[in-house]
Structures are given as structure tokens and as C-alpha cells.
Amino acid sequence: MHTVNSRLLEIIGILLFLLIMMSCKHDIPIQVIETPVTGGEQTCSADTVYFQNSVLPLLNSSCAMSGCHDAITHKEGVNLTTYGNVMATGGVRPGDPANSKLYKVLNQTGGDRMPPPPAAAFTQAQKDLMYKWILQGAKNNACNDCDTTLFTYSGAVSPLMNSYCKGCHNPASTGGGFDLSTYAGVRSIALNGKLLGSIRHDAGFIAMPQGGNKLSACRITQVQKWISAGSPNN
Q1: Which of 20, 28, 125, 142 lies at a C-alpha separation of 20 to 30 Å from 41?
Q2: Nearest Cα to 91, choosing from 35, 47, 52, 130?
Q3: Is residue 44 part of a domain?
Q4: pLDDT digits (tens, 9 = 90+) for 131-142
Q5: pLDDT at 21 > cutoff 60
Q6: Cβ neighbours of residue 83 under 8 Å, at least 6 residues apart?
Q7: pLDDT for residue 12
């Protein structure tokens, strides 16, 4: 009788364990093989949207943040930190933006919209950029769009802030207490050394873009030259 009771308790224990495991939801990150980047050295074409130059920086600064769609959190199983992960988990259908989840959620309202409130919604120009990239085949492409002889605020620094930084540092979401959506906000961290220290990943500074790749040497040089010139609003 004792042996039967022990066996029965063992079976009940196994069944309870299986029920608990079945009730749990585990978001396991999908392992992907990254597709090699095409281009990179070629001159940019005004008719083409480049993933590495425009799409990925926008996703990293607005969506692939801690607690959302970064590599650690991967909320709802979506990881938007690299091309491979975007294609594996973002619901992208190359050539068909209207039926691609990555594009559709940008046009939702309320809590269904991405990025969700209080984060700022994508501008129409940013939505159009995502649409065009998917329409053109959602390629892992890049081009050479940096020139160290150009280091004005309007021509180099502001576009860089819009692509890489403003998603986390805007009036609705002032990450670290910084609003980098305006010239005044950018100039303030340029003058105190935090802008250059962060993008160069200097010791003692929080590396930026946070969670993304370090800016290219060319872009860092543009910012450094602008700061050395007095950080003008030019």
C-alpha cells in the first residue's frame, strides 16, 4: 500500500509540474543569422531608403529600448535591434508594407500605436520612410552618406539627433533629463561635454546611442568639429 501511495503522489507531482509549465508564457528570443549588409561604400541614392543609415537608427532610438523591443526585453517576442531580428520578429513582408505589422502599428491609435504613448508617434516623414523601405524589398542595405567637411547644425548634427537620439530624448520622454529635439537642448549637452563623451563612449559617460551601435568615426568627427566651432545654430 505504501508503494502504491508513493507512486500515486509521484504521478500527481509530475502532472502538477506539467500543468504549471503549460500555463507559463515564455518569450524566447529567436536566434537569427544576420544577412550581410549590401553597399556601404557607395554614394547614397535619393530614390533609395537604406536600412543601416535610416531605418535601424530610427528603430533603435524609438522602439528597441529597455523594457520594450530591445534584445533583453523583446516584448511580445519582438526584437528590433538588428536587421536579422527585425525581419524574424517584426512582421515585415518585403514589398508589402500595407500588410507588414512593423508599418501598421505605426498608424494605430491609443495603446496599440507604436511607439506607445507617452512616447512621441512617428512623424509622417518617418512613416513614409518605413513604408518606402519595405516597398523596396526591406533590404539590409547601406550607403556612404557622411562627409566630415559638413559639420553645421542643420546639415549634420540635427539630422543625427533626429535619427539616433530624439526617440529617447524628446519632450514626452526626456531620457536622462535631456530633450534633444531642439537646438537649445543639444547645445546644452554639447557645452558641458556630455554629448561628445557619450557618442565617443569615453570612460565615465553613458555610451550613446544606448543599445545601438557606436556612431561611425565620420559622424563623431562632424559633431566634434561643430562643437569646436562653438556649437552654432547654423
Answers
A1: 125
A2: 130
A3: yes
A4: 999 999 999 999
A5: no
A6: 34, 35, 37, 51, 52, 56, 140
A7: 63
Closest by Cα among 154, 155, 136 to 145: 155
Reply yes or no on whether the pLDDT at 18 is more than 60. no
Helices within the chain (DSSP H only): 2-23, 56-62, 83-89, 101-104, 124-135, 158-164, 183-191, 194-199, 217-228
Angular region, 30: left φ>0, alpha ψ -120 to 50, beta rest: beta
Residue where a domain stops, chosen among 143, 163, 196: 143
Percent of the chain surpassing pLDDT 90: 48
- Above 50 in pLDDT, residue 22? no
Residue 45 lies in a domain: yes
The answer on 83 and 50 residing in a single domain is yes
The yes-or-no verdict on residue 14 having pLDDT over 70 is no
CA angle 182, 188, 194 (to 5 degrees): 115
Nearest by Cα to 164 from 230, 227, 212: 212
User: Higher pLDDT residue, 13 or 213?
Assistant: 213
- Tell which residue, 156, 161, 88, 100, has the closest CA to residue 127: 100
Q: Which amino acid is at 24?
A: C
42, containing H or E segment: strand 38-43
Residues 115 and 166 in one domain: no
DSSP state of 75: G
